C-alpha cells in the first residue's frame, strides 16, 4: 500500500501557509474539511492553503507537493486512527464514528492517488469554489519530468521504512 507524503523542494511552504506540514509527513487532500468555507473571508495564508494545500495528518499544516510512499498495513491502520483523533480535535467531527468514517475515506483517497504514481513524480492540488454548485471543486495535477529530459534538476526518492 502507498499513501501520500509531503515533499519540500524549498522552504516556500513555511512562508506561504499558516502552518507547514513537515517534510515526509503523511498527507490527505483534506478538501472535505473546506466545505462551507468562504475563501474570500480567509486571510491570505489560509486562502492559499485552501487553494493549493494538501493537509498534513499530524500537524494539520499544509504542503504544496505530495509524493507516494509505501506504508505497511499496521502503520496505515495506526495512521487512520490518528487521523480520526485529529479530526475530532481539530476539525470538529461530531463523534468518533463520524471521525473514523471520514478518516477512512480520506486515506482511501490518498491511497488511490498514490497507487500508480510513478517514482519521481509529484502531485499538486488546486481547489476553488464551483460557481454552479457552491461546493469545493478539486483538481490534482501530476508533475513529472518531460520525456527525453537529459538532466534532472532533482529526483524524488522515497526510502522504504526501516531500510
How would the blueprint of this fold be written?
Blueprint: E1 2-6, H1 12-16, E2 26-28, H2 44-52, E3 54-56, E4 62-63, E5 65-70, H3 73-90, H4 96-115, E6 122-129, E7 136-143
Helix pairs in contact: 3-4
Q: Which geometry do the CA atoms define?
A: globular
Domain count: 1
- Helix-residue proportion: 25-40%
**What is the total tally of β strands?**
7
Report how far the terminal alpha carbons are from each other.
16 Å
Number of helices: 4
Class by alpha and beta content: alpha+beta
Low-confidence runs of at least 5 consecutive residues: none
Describe this structure in words.
The protein has one domain. Helices cover 32% and strands 21% of the residues. Helix 3 packs across helix 4. A 7-stranded antiparallel beta sheet has the order 4-3-2-1-5-6-7. The radius of gyration is 16 Å and the shape is globular. A hairpin with a 6-residue loop joins strand 6 and strand 7. It is of the alpha+beta class.
